[in-house]
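Let's practice the habit of predicting before peeking. Look at the sequence and jot down your guess about where helices and strands might fall. Then scroll down.
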Amino acid sequence: MTGIRIHGPEPDLENPTLVEGFPGVGLVGKIATDHLVEQLEMRYYASVHCEGLPRIGVYRGGDRTVRPPVRLYVSEEQDLIALQSDAPITSKAVETVAACLTNWIVNQAATPIYLSGLPADRDEGSRPDLYGVTTGDGDERLEAAEIPIPPEDGVITGPTGALINRAAQESHDSIGLVVECDPQFPDPEAASVLLEDGVSPIADIDVNVQDLVDRAEEIRAKRERLAQQMQAIGREESSQAQPLRMYQ
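Done guessing? Here is the structure:
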């Protein structure tokens, strides 16, 4: 059986925002979404069983519970859904996964925020730049949050790119946030900018990101192996933004 499998009671949501956290360059989307789930104490809501997702079980240290690698969490108080993923998605599966998830997102009348990193060499101590893109009628929320337009042409690859592509094809509302990040290592600082300057004002939620900054070295160490896996599978399979000139 493919699709979304609900665990526990259906949440009472009005006009939910969904934050996507597939692993990609700098692991910015994953780190941001993991932090969101933890900080807001979001409830495990559903498991994702779209065709093409790896059939593996994930467990945590100090906990016997095994769960699928891609999961949905919910906060009724914040009218928020978060997609948490612990595994890379192969290039062969991204289109199928994007179609499966998009159908469900549309049925929930949710507005998705898709997160991506833009590899960049930043000066030490400089704050990563954040840009916003949209499909459908998502532009109003970016304007209200005062998120800048990208300064140059670009593309978004991997599962995040496939999700945005599907939204554009079908004219669904969606928001894409692109943040400058370390091209090689997990980047908690860039993830904190995604949350503080992007997700928080768009979704109208309050998230404390200081812990991400304070524990940056610890988070990098924990996530470095996954970051290496994302580099190994290549640019086409990893969610990231790239200047369009890289493809010309």
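How did you do? Helices lie at 28-39, 94-107, 139-144, 158-170, 188-203, 210-214, 216-233.
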